[in-house]
Amino acid sequence: MARRKLVYEGKAKILYEGPEPGTLVQYFKDDATAFNAEKKDVIDGKGVLNNRLSEFFMTGLQRIGVPTHFIKRLNMREQLIRQVEIVPLEVIVRNFAAGTMAQRLGLEEGTALPRPIVEFSYKDDSLGDPLVPEEYIIAFGWATQQDLDDIVALALRVNDFMAGVMHGVGIKLVDFKIEVGRVWENDFMRLIVADEISPDSCRLWDIETDRKLDKDVFRRDLGDLNDAYTEVARRLGVLPKSG
Ligand code: C5P
């Protein structure tokens, strides 16, 4: 294949120019990073699992009418996506306290929240993606109030879908992060789900045992990350149940 133009290289993915204008190829690497890349490793096969899992979640969302950037999977590690203008926010939805929220508020991890809570971090690695209030987002022009209303509605739809799918296979959706991008269609701007949805960007706990099946396995040295992601993929039927 002819060498493609690299558009962007991130910690876990690479974006190349796509075959048509307005498309990109998203390549999933095996690199795992945590704590703003202070902890790094290469986990053989992680990229393959995340490519399949992100395809599974994005196509499921599209089936229920939630727009995403996903067009089609190209091969084991690559998918064709729509080019978007990324909103510089990490949109986090939490159903149970964990991670930074549990630390900040002194809550025990796993405490059920009164309702799903949506929060925003400003996407900037050099600052460690700081949590920001809506007031900052609007004042600095990263998004408008209308965008934020739309993003919250989108994030809650993703939450309902993901929590339901996960519950069906005995997994609790503790929290997750999405990124959102702008596309223009007939002069109208639309916000769609972009980036990836995978166990790298979710907290997934077994309903019975609270066993962690997500990137906390890597962050906290809890075992083999591939085993955890493979378990998620098998339960969802993305990989054969055995073998
Ligand atoms: O670390 P924290 O508790 O704020 O993370 C909340 C959720 O967002 C977790 O599921 C985590 O994996 C995800 N996240 C992410 N990328 C970041 C920060 C958080 O995917 N840069």
UniProtKB/TrEMBL annotation:
GO terms for molecular function: ATP binding; phosphoribosylaminoimidazolesuccinocarboxamide synthase activity. GO terms for biological process: 'de novo' IMP biosynthetic process; cobalamin biosynthetic process. PROSITE patterns: SAICAR_SYNTHETASE_1. The keyword Nucleotide-binding applies. Transmembrane segments: none annotated. Pfam families: SAICAR_synt. It catalyses: 5-amino-1-(5-phospho-D-ribosyl)imidazole-4-carboxylate + L-aspartate + ATP = (2S)-2-[5-amino-1-(5-phospho-beta-D-ribosyl)imidazole-4-carboxamido]succinate + ADP + phosphate + 2 H(+). Pathway: Purine metabolism; IMP biosynthesis via de novo pathway; 5-amino-1-(5-phospho-D-ribosyl)imidazole-4-carboxamide from 5-amino-1-(5-phospho-D-ribosyl)imidazole-4-carboxylate: step 1/2. GO terms for cellular component: cytosol. Residues 7-235 form the SAICAR synthetase/ADE2 N-terminal domain. The keyword Ligase applies. Its EC number is 6.3.2.6. It is an enzyme of class 6 (ligase). Keywords: ATP-binding, Ligase, Nucleotide-binding, Purine biosynthesis. CDD domains: SAICAR_synt_PurC. InterPro entries: SAICAR_synt/ADE2_N, SAICAR_synt_PurC, SAICAR_synth, SAICAR_synthetase, SAICAR_synthetase_CS. PANTHER family: MULTIFUNCTIONAL PROTEIN ADE2, SI:DKEY-6E2.2. Belongs to the SAICAR synthetase family. NCBIfam families: purC. This is Phosphoribosylaminoimidazole-succinocarboxamide synthase. It comes from Pseudooctadecabacter jejudonensis. The gene is purC.
